Amino acid sequence: MHPRLAADLAQLPELLEITRRHATAFLDGLDDAPVVPRTRPPHAEPLSDHGVGLRAALGEFTERWEPGLSAAAGPRYLGFVTGGVTPAALAGDWLTAAVDQNATSSLDAAGQHLERETIGWLRDLFGLSDSHEGAFVSGATMSNTVGLAIAREWLGERLGVSPAEDGVGALGAVRVLSGSPHSSVAKGLSMLGLGRAALETVPTLPGREAIDPEALERALREADGPRIVVANAGTVNTVDFDDLRAVAALRERYDFWLHVDAAFGAFAGLSPDHAHLVDGLDLADSLCVDLHKWLNVPYDSAVQFTRRRDLQVRVFQNAAAYLGPLGDTPDFVHLTPENSRRLRALAAWFTLRAYGRDGHREIVERCVACAHTVGQAVEDLDGLRLLAPVRLNVVCFTLAEDPTPERLSALADALAGEVFLTPTVYTGLPALRAAFSNWRTTDKDTRLIVKALEEAVRSLR
Questions:
Q1: What is the pLDDT of residue 371?
Q2: Would you give the DSSP letter of residue 320?
Q3: Which residues carry this modification: N6-(pyridoxal phosphate)lysine (predicted)?
Q4: Per residue in 364-418, pLDDT tens?
Q5: Positive or negative: CA dihedral 163, 165, 167, 169
Q6: What is the distance between the alpha carbons of residues 235 and 420, in angstroms, rounded to a whole number?
Q7: CA angle, 384 as apex, 381 and 390 as ends, to 5°?
Q8: Residues in the chain with pLDDT values less than 50
Q9: Could you report the per-residue pLDDT of 425-439, keeping only the tens digit for each?
Q10: How far apart are alpha carbons 181 and 200 in whole angstroms?
Q11: Which one-letter DSSP state was computed for residue 300?
C-alpha cells in the first residue's frame, strides 16, 4: 500500500474527527458568513507526484478554496430554488459515501430495497397512487429527460414503432406543447433527438405563467396524431400552476402523454393551505420532482415517477452477461441512463424518517411565510416593484424606475454579502428572484433581507 494511504488508514478515526469539526465550524458560521464572497480563485497547482496526505490536503483546502465558497447551505442563499441540507440528510449523505453502495443491481440488493422504500414514502408524501413507480436521478433536468424519454416511447407505441430500437426517425415530426416550459425541457428534447424545435409554446392565461386550457385544446385539435404535453406545477419565475385537472381532462378527446414538471411545486401538497395548487398531480403519466430543492437533501438528488414502467424499461434496459434478468421488478440499472450511481436515496431516507410529513410540512409553510413577508416588503418599499403575486415561495420583483440589466445587476451585487438573488426576465422586464426553500431560513433572516433591500435601493438612487 502507498505510504500516504497506509498512514491515513492508520489515523482514519482521528482524521475523520478533524474533518467533522471542520465541517461543523463551517456550518456554524453560515449565519454570519458573506452569502457570496467576493474573492479571486487561487492559482491552479500542478498535481503532486507523491501527495501530501489527508491532513495536509484539508489544510490546503481550508486556506486556498474554502474562503471563496458561498454560503449556499445557509438561510439567505435564495438563488436557483436551492435547498440546504437538514441534519438528518447530512448524516445520510456522509454514510452514503462511507458505505459506498452502487444501488442499481439486485445481485447486491440492499441499496435497491432501501431506495424502493424511500420511493414509496415520497409517493405518499406527494399524494400519488401506487400506479406511479419511481427512481432516483441526479436532478430535475434528468428527471424531465427520463419522463420525456418514456413519452417518446409512448409516441412510438401509438405509431407502431419503437424509437428505442428503431431511432427517433421512425416517429416523424413530434410536437411538445407547454405554456411556460422550464429550460431543462428543451435541453431534454435536444438530448433525446426530438429537437428543441419540437417544443411549441402555448399561450398562457392573461397576466399568468399558467397555460390557457382553451388555447391548449386548440393546439391539440390542430395537432396531427398523438402528442406530448408538459404541464407545470410551479414555474420558476412566479411559481404559477397549470390547472392539472383541466389539462388532464383533455385526454378524453385528444391523444397525448401528460408530463408534469413539479420540480419544487409538488411540495405545495404538504401544506393544507396550498394543496389545491397541485390538485390532479396524480393524473400525470410522468412526473418530475427535485429533492435537493425543498426536501433539503444534498446535491444531486431528484426523483422521477411514471405510470408506464414497461415503456421505461424498453428505453433504458441494459443487456450484459453480468446483470440479472429483468423479471417483474426491474433493477434500477434498467430504469435510468446511469448504469452505476451512489445510493442517493439514503439522504432522503434519513430526512424523511427523522422529520416525517409534519417536519417537512413545517419547512414548506415557514418558507412560504418568509416569501410573503419579503413580498409585502417589496410592495411597500419605494423604489421596488413586485411583478407577480407571491403564490408560494418565490418573490419576483424589479426596480420601479429604469429596470435595466445593469442596474438590476448592481442591486444584486449590493445585496450579495447579505443575500444572494438570481436574475431573470419576466414579462420582458429584467428582474430578480428570491426563492425560499432552505430549512434554516426564519423570520430573523427575512428582517435582515428586508433591511439589506432597503439599503441597496438607497445606494442606487
A1: 98
A2: -
A3: 293
A4: 999 999 999 999 999 999 999 999 999 999 999 999 999 999 999 999 999 988 9
A5: negative
A6: 20
A7: 85
A8: none
A9: 999 999 999 999 999
A10: 9
A11: S
Query: For position 30, what pLDDT does the model report?
Result: 95
* CATH code for the structural domain at 102-341: 3.40.640.10
β-strand 256-261 against 394-399: which pairing, if any?
unpaired
User: Phi and psi of 454, rounded to 5°?
Assistant: -60, -45
Cβ neighbours around 337 below 10 Å, total: 15
Look at residues 392, 291, 267, 287 and name the one whose alpha carbon lies nearest to residue 347. 291
Strand partners, 130: none
Longest dimension (CA), the chain: 71
Grid coordinates of 68: 471563496
**Among 109, 453, 72, 33, residue whose Cα is nearest residue 298:** 72
CA distances from 199 to 116, 174, 182, 347, 382 (A): 33, 9, 11, 35, 40
The residue written with cell numbers 428570491 in the block is: 434
Nearest-angstrom CA–CA distance, 229 and 236: 18
In angstroms, the first-to-last Cα distance of the chain is 64
Nearest Cα residue to 315 out of 103, 107, 167: 167
- Give the up-direction half-sphere exposure of residue 397: CA atoms within 13 A in the CB hemisphere: 28
Give the integer Cα–Cα distance in Å for 390 and 75.
Answer: 19
pLDDT at res. 284: 98
Which cell numbers hold the place of 156? Answer: 412510438
Question: What does pTM read for this prediction?
Answer: 0.96
pLDDT at 324: 67
In three-state secondary structure terms, 326 is coil
Q: Any idea where the domains of the chain sit in the sequence?
A: 102-341
How many angstroms separate the Cα of 293 from the Cα of each of 142, 381, 391, 460? 14, 29, 17, 32
Radius of gyration of the chain (CA): 24
Instruction: Check: CB of residue 248 under 8 Å from CB of residue 279.
Output: no
Type of residue at 388: A
As beta bridge partners, residue 432 has 397, 423
| pLDDT score recorded for residue 129 | 95
